[in-house]
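call fold target=Zinc finger protein
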Amino acid sequence: MMALLYVVFIMLFISCEAKLQLRKDINITALFAFGDSIVDQGNNNNLITHAKCNFLPYGKDFMGGNKPTGRFSNARTPADMLVEDFGIKKLMPAYLDSNLKVEDLKTGVSFASGASGFDLLTAIVASALPLSVQLALFQQYIWKMNGFIGEEATKNIVKKSLYIVVAGSDDLCNTYFMLKFPRKIQYNVDSYTNLMVDGASNFINDLYNMGARRIWIFGLPPIGCLPSQILRGGGAPKICVDEYNQAAQIVNTKLSNKIYSLNKKLPQIELLYINIYDPLLDIIVNHDKYGFEDALSACCQGGNVYLLCDNITRICENDANYLFWDSYHLTERGYRVLLDQISN
């Protein structure tokens, strides 16, 4: 069980590096997610977009098997694991799930949308929900809860909840390096990563102004090691693309510095940058140590242009041996190992 259970972290910053100190006097009773497909629990299901997965083989191992829900995984996502690790509930639902009950809303939902990013263009091109729309849905959530449980109780939920933000990979993978026009013509890597971090900063400020105080921002992974980017990078098979990884590291450095600045600027905020780049790269490089036979190929070999799984996809025999489920997302076991590494 992760060290996150029943505790929350406060941040002490030294040279922009976050040190974690456990506080046992605070319990997290609600968790909300924003961002992209890593924590999209099914919000894209009814959108007209290629970024959706409410069909098999997605969900083939979910809750007993063969239950596609719109989660971009063979089973659960990091959002599901976090709410369970905090003892909140078994699964995190999507806010746009028509079956939600008030009790589901009280303990947190995901507003995330697959293929969204800090750059507005990223969501527009993919027909996903931009972060601005995700915030609008959160405002709608607040209005709903005011009616269900009253303004004071709602304000208490909003203030004491934990908010996780997972975004940025699609900006680089899809908008900058793949789409190229217009962003790669308009910006070099330095200026485009500035645009991304400005987008992240604006989002944090908006979320703060809506009452959020405990916010975790997840940094970018080594995107050059994603199976999709290895293929599109045009290099040797199973060799990470250095150019893409370097861009991710630039974003992470700037994002970490911005978070350090916002922690000093915004009263009462508990803002934390989560480094996933180094732990995931260690799992990839030393995959044998973590029990993975393959860390640079997808278990689910999508044959379409988007490199996602489809109904003619070939699936590996044992997904527990694979770090990656499809060409962008980890297997459930991959996410579990990564979260355990982050919390240690």
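return ok
Residues 1-23 have pLDDT under 50 and may be disordered. The beta strands are 8-14, 17-23, 31-35, 162-166, 214-218, 270-274, 294-298, 300-301, 314-315, 322-324.
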